[in-house]
Amino acid sequence: MNINTHDNTNVPALKIQGLSKVYDNGFHALKGIDLTVPQGGFFALLGPNGAGKSTTIGIISSLFPPTAGSVEIFGVDLIRQPAKAKQFLGVVPQEFNFMQFENVQDILINQAGYYGIAKSQAKPRAEKLLKALGLWDKRNTKSRMLSGGMKRRLMIARALMHKPRLLILDEPTAGVDIELRRSMWEFMEYINQEEKTTIILTTHYLEEAEQLCKHIAILDKGQIRINTDMKSLLASLDVESFVLDFAQEHHEPITLQHTLRHQKIDNLSLEVTLKKGDSLNGIFAQLSNQGVQIASMRNKSNRLEELFMNLVENKLTTKLNDQV
């Protein structure tokens, strides 16, 4: 059933050159970005709000044309051959955009029909995806009756019906609880590894990017500031965050010196950010002087939280460029 065969394994899954977008109101959303995503990878595209991520995805999805530049999907020019290029592409947008009164299985089968896939082939594919995503028992349920998390999984299943070789996931786990989010991560890893699907992920849950993706590009104000492998990026971060758990509740404000940042999470815990290698002993002494005893501490697992702060100050970009 795989309609997306392609012989040249050296062709990038996605190649963007000189991509610019100026909206009618004069806003310059993209400023000549270049980006290459190799086949088979799990690629993170991150950036603060307004960075240009949604515009980039909108152009790749053919929702609107670029002002300048080119986009190729597995070597096929999206502007010149949109129908052919889109055969390789699956997109999971942030918004739910399926028919609310259509049942779950029919949504998938009808989606396959748009790609010329016969119903006899679509039904087993739909069954496989619905079972993998925990939706099989909802197959005859109207989509409007699904929870938000189920609707999100249905969007993923629909995008995969034609076995796209490139899948774009735009905030796929937004509003999904942590347990379901992790099961969706596992499914994404399966699709990436077993079906050899190249995946581009945008997310505000930065731990997703750190756990799943080997490569990362960061957009800021319409330009790509960083394009590197995740290992190099994490090695470049020169800060560490810790969560300190209090021995008992502390309701008063806490003031600390010699930290990059600190903030009470609640009355039982505090997050502290230091330069990598700085000692916590002085922090403990300051807390003790304010009547706070620490019962336990742990590293905050998500170091990528520091990215946008460093980008604003242009420190991270300069450091990475110095390494090249």
TrEMBL record:
SUPFAM superfamilies: P-loop containing nucleoside triphosphate hydrolases. This is ABC-2 type transport system ATP-binding protein. GO terms for molecular function: ATP binding; ATP hydrolysis activity. Coiled coil: none annotated. Residues 14-246 form the ABC transporter domain. Pfam families: ABC_tran. The keyword Ligase does not apply. InterPro entries: AAA+_ATPase (IPR003593), ABC_transporter-like_ATP-bd (IPR003439), ABC_transporter-like_CS (IPR017871), ABC_transporter_ATP-binding (IPR050763), P-loop_NTPase (IPR027417). Keywords: ATP-binding, Nucleotide-binding, Transport. Gene3D superfamilies: P-loop containing nucleotide triphosphate hydrolases. PANTHER family: ABC TRANSPORTER ATP-BINDING PROTEIN, ABC-TYPE MULTIDRUG TRANSPORT SYSTEM, ATPASE COMPONENT.
